[in-house]
Design brief:
189 residues; alpha+beta; Porin; eight-stranded antiparallel beta barrel; 8 strands; 16% helix; 59% strand; disordered N terminus
Length: 189
Amino acid sequence: MKVVSKSVAVLALGLLVGAPVAHAQGAEFSLGGGATLPLSTFGDVAKTGFHGLVAVSFAPSSFPLGIQIDGMYQRLKNEDFIPGDRSSQIIQGTGNVIYKFKSSEESQFRPYLIGGVGIYNFKAVGGDDVSPPGEGNTSTDFGLNGGAGFDFKAGSIGLFLEGRFHNVFSGGEDAKFIPITLGIRLGGN
């Protein structure tokens, strides 16, 4: 966990230092976190957990469509009936299309839609009975996501609140979850 905390701190510092350059090029960097809500059969196994997000997006101010590449780390504690003190860890990378709704130039509130594809790595971590590598404790699968959010802009810095539904096509039942993210955006137009 210390490695993750240090990595997030270094990444946040890099985002702050790179914001003026990103603003000049129209790129927007995002850093956020929040709660992850497991759904369906994944919700039968895992409890609500936490996540961290880092993203870079390119959305021209004169055009409503843009792209966003993001990475997310998630950790969800398994239900009490599962033996051992285990958690589900998800590391994912997604490529998305963003549609930003038209708003007045003076408006600081800007809604958007987001959706795309991604690669998701699931891993069971912790507990006394961790399987050796290659024996079912990890899997990497393809998935889709879609959701909506709101930007609250104040110059080149802003806040965002976003919810996205993720459906991961695993070997058996699809894993479904919704991360609710609150974060900061740096750069952009």
